[in-house]
Structure formats: C-alpha cells, structure tokens
Fold this protein.
Amino acid sequence: MPRIERFRERIGAIFLPEADAAEVTDEASRVPDVTLLSPDVRTPDLAPGSLGGLGPGLPPWRICSTSLRQGCYTIGYKPFGTTIFGTRYRGTLRIEQLSPGLRFSGDLYRYRLLDWPIIEPPIFQQAQSLGADKPPTDEAADTGGTIPIYRRADYYSYLRGTGAQLWSIVPWHSPCTFTLEFEEFVYSQPATGFSGNFNPAATRKLRFVLGQTLPDLYVGLAYDGTTAIGTASIRWISSSYRRANLQLFTLQGAAPPPANVGGTTMASIFADVGWELAFTDGGTINLPASLAGVNPNACWSKPDLHTLMSSVPTYNPAALDSVWNVHLLAVPAQLVAPPNNCSRGVMFDSSLGADPNDVPREGSATFSDDGYPAGEPPDGQGGVSYDLATNQLQRNVPRAFLRSATHEVGHAFNQIHQNFELGVDNSIMTPTPNVAVVLGTAGIFPDQINLAFNAQVKRHLRHLPDPAVRPGAMDFFGSAIAAPEAADVAWLDMLELVVTPSSDRVALGEPVTLTWTLTNRAQAAVLAPDELAVESLVARVSVTGPSGKITFMRPPDIESCPRILIAPLEPGASVSGSATVFWGTDGFAFERPGRHLVEVIALWSVAGVPTAVSGESDVFVSYPTSSGENEVAAQLLHPDVGRAVATGNAAPFGSALERIRAARQAARTHPANAALRRIGLGEEPKGRGGGGSR
C-alpha cells in the first residue's frame, strides 16, 4: 500500500477554519427550577423575575436571557495596556440562527487609533460594571447599517464560534451578560500579495463576556481561559452577512446574461445566501486596441480576458481594500462540438500567466454564444441531453444563461464544483453537464434548473474567513480545499504510475521536466481520468527534500472549471501527463543539494469515493563546485524566475529577465541554462525585449 504519512501535505491540501453549528446553552435547557432549590437557599419573598435570595442578607438573583439578531455585527477587541499608538483589533462577526442553535464566525483586522474618545455615560458605566478599566472605543462603531470593509494587509485572524451561553443568573442589580466562545486562527500574511495560510491548530481559545448597553450594542471583556485580557464589543449593523459589488460589461456583439428570470436576479440569488450584492450593468464595451488581433467569436484565452477586464472604465485593483469588487465580462465565444467547446464561461483571473498584476479572483467571463451542445460528457458519465436547450446558444436560454454566469461569479468568490465536495446536485456550483444529468431523472433542462446555491456553498459564503472569499486575497484553491483524508482513499493496486524525470542528476538551480504514465495492469477495464493534468489537480506533484521538508508543487494556474472525464481505461492502456518541476506557488522544488524524492499522486473520484495511485522517483541535486555555479543558483532560485519558468514567459515578472541573463553570463554551459533554453527562456528572442513564451 502506498505511503499515507503526511498525506495531506503531499497532495497540497489547504486548511481553512470554518464555523459549524455551535453548542448553545439557553434558558429552556439549563435554567434551574426554583422549586428544586433546597429550602435553605430559598427565601419566601422573591423579587420579581428572581430565583430568590441565596441566603440571609444576600441580594435576590434573576435569570437573564439574550436573543442575538441574525446578520452582521461589527466587533472590537482591545488588549489591556494598549497605548495610544498601540495595536487593537476590529472586524465583523456573523451570527446565523439555526434550528436549533447558532453558527457564528468573525474576522479581526489590526488598526491603530488615539486612545478612548469621549463616549456616552451609559457605555462607560456598563464597561465598569463588567470589570473594564476603561470603556470600549469605537471598535464596534455604528456604521449606519453599512457592513465595513477593511484593508487586506491589516487582516489578523479568524474567529470560529464554538459555543455560546445566552443565559445567566446574576444579582438583581447587576447587568445581564452572555458568553460567546471562539477558537482563534491567526493568518500568516505572505511577504508579497495577500494569499497567506492558516495553521490547522487554533492559536488560542477566546471567550467574550458581554452585556447590552444601548440597543444592538454589547460590551464587556475578552478572556483567554480564566484570565481577562482586554475589552470587547459587538454591534449589530445589518441583517446581511457580507457585502460585495458585481459589475457587468458586455463586449460589442455579445449578449449579457438576463437581468431577471421569473423574478430571480443575481442580486436575489446572493440575497438568498445572506449577501448584499450591489449589481451594476456597465453596458457595452468595444474591443480595446491591445486585443486588435483577437477573434471575439472564438474561444478566449485567460490572458486576453484579463486584458479586456483591465480596459473597462471601473477597473481598479487598488480599490479591493475598500470594496469586494468582481467584474463579469460577457463575450461571444462560440458553440462547437465537445470536447472543444468553450465551456460557457470561466473564472480567468486565477493564474500567473493570466494575472500579471498578481491580484487573484477579480474577474469572470460568461460566453453568450457558447451553449449546450449535444453529447457533452459530464464527469464520469456518458454524453448528456440538455433537453429543450440542446444545441442552443446561452443567449437563447435565459434560465440556464443566468445560472451559468452566476456559477462563474461564484468561482470569483472562491467556491468550487460540488462534485469535489458533497456530490453533484441541482445547484449553481455543480457543473452544468452534471445538473443536466440530475434533471434527467427528475426534471427538464432548463425549466427545472434551481437558481440557488446549495446549503454547503451558503455556509462557505457566510462563514469562511474573509481572505478565502474576498477578491484579491487568497488564490483560487480548487479541489485542494476538499482534499480527502488518507484513510478515505481507495488505492488501486491494479494501476501502475511510473514517474520519470528528465534527469536524476541535476545542478542546483536547474528545472526538471517530469513525465508520468498511468497504466492499467489488470485484466479488466478500470475507471480512470482521461488526462493527468496538474492544473486540474488530478495529478499532484510533491518533492520531499533532504531535511524531510515536503513542498507541494502547487500549479500557478489551477482550473476553476476543470474538465475531468472519468472513463474506462482498458487493460494495457495508458494515460500520461507532464510538468516542469522547478517552482510552484508553495515554493521551490530543489532548494538545496542532496537527495529529493519526487512523487506524483493521481487523485480522482469514482461514485463519490476518492481514488488514487502514486508513483515516485529520486532526483539528486549536486553541490556547486565553482563560483560560477554558485552564481547561477543564486540568480535562478528567485521567485521572479520561478514565475517565469512556471508560465514560460519572463517579461511580466520583475527581475526575471535580468537574473536569467546574469546566470547565462556566469556560466553559459551550466545545465540550468540549457534547461531554460529548452523551455524558451534561455535566449532573448531577436527583435524583442522580452522572454520567450510557450
């Protein structure tokens, strides 16, 4: 059986903390019955609403119960001892009413502000009664009902709600309080950009003990265990959980998705999730001069779509610190027979090659003149029927067109295909061919299309951390977020995966071309993918270095809508894949000399069961033996060069060209320079100032 240790590292699994139903203590289940108290702790004269006096001379007690409104709250936390110029924290808290219980989560951002402005006496008195040395500031300020948006660079941590006690027994003249409990996950911000990560282990557990001061405003103390560590406050501001903007632009000759289908709009679809989505139709745009050679009626490339997005009047990536803004481009494309059709749309802003400004998930595109070809295969099945929409263009099928366009917008908010999560269904994030299959047994396509996200996606959009969903933060993570545990994987011993590097002896700084071939050694056909691409995450490449460090070769172009056809692989038949192994968005493959284990895991799903085969090969990295070899390694082991190798184009990436030239001058015959020439980066093309392209 293949190795299972550190399996999730080897397949590049991404951990995101996410709130689930929290344990809630309420008055119905936990408040004691006064008749059950022993006579020595009851008094005959009970104050109204009290449980009774708990002994001679002691004050009567009362039951407090808090009901929190659903929606978005501002949240503030100020550690004790914070100076005028010290760091404090603010953000948003989302509370969702379940039946029964609550689901709640929050995000904290760092900020600095002059200490303690003048505030109203009732808040001051309440804070003092709860033990605060000073009243809370505007950390949970009234925003006039507008959900606030903070700078990405200020993001600090995610709060996963784990429990709540919404009742308390307090002395008659003391304020009522309630408790919210959280696990806090601090975010690791990257050196550049905003696509960081969360550690799977919670940083600490927090507890907010709060009491109401003004309507919808609650203040109190934050605790780490039993120790009070600061003041805390929350204020309800909106019945929505989050807010975002969506701007539609339609290229001349294309048709926009319908604004309204039977009363359903994009804004109403997101309102059903609990989002306040401001939808703006920017009208028709012309093809910019920079795309003069592009045929808008053919399938579009991702770089061309990014160029088109950057030409619209409202495009401003810097604005993503103040608004969650997504662009939706409607372009014609075309309807052709599968598998060469344009796929109805794409979230194009997810790769280095298509995203020269390294700001992910700003835009999606919908293709009005692609559509619903006969015989298109869904994942793992034969050709489907689109019923009334068969061979129709999207522009002529309003319900399906609105669904498909919203699907691509969902990708921009980092949502993935549901066949990678709970399975296919009739919901927006299920691939269109699979929706047709679902309706093939219980409905008609497109009439019974459900224009809604399913419960799983709704939960993600409400409670995933801000960086995971807001545009311009974390990269699109694809099925890496739904990666299985090793114990849940079915390993197919009858399939053999052979991994072959271009060389098993390489110099430090040298890219390696890796190929892999999956062969059926059984006597019967086995269901397997028809291609093994890293961009779809069917093939996952990792490198274990001499120190035991595992680096997953996360591709810089994870497909948002991968075409994964699971079909019978006949006995003796093979399917292959390849990649340049040098740099991925998680780092370099070969950063130091010594033995490296290069592994490929082919991972797919059959009838909802994760299925895998693995293969591996050794690559030995030589020590530099001269100053020239040292210089080559120093120049090439730089992220700009890594990006250039990953995309096959050095021009967009800062110092990449300069570093490649310097490496060539330091040792022209070095194997790394020869490898760069093979992928089109070793020599500067004549008559051009940029690197080559694939």
In short: The longest strand covers residues 609-622. Confidence is low (pLDDT under 50) at residues 27-54, 115-129, 131-137, 685-694. Residues 23-30+66-238 form a domain with the Lipocalin fold (CATH 2.40.128.120). The chain has four domains: 23-30+66-238, 242-482, 485-622, 627-678.
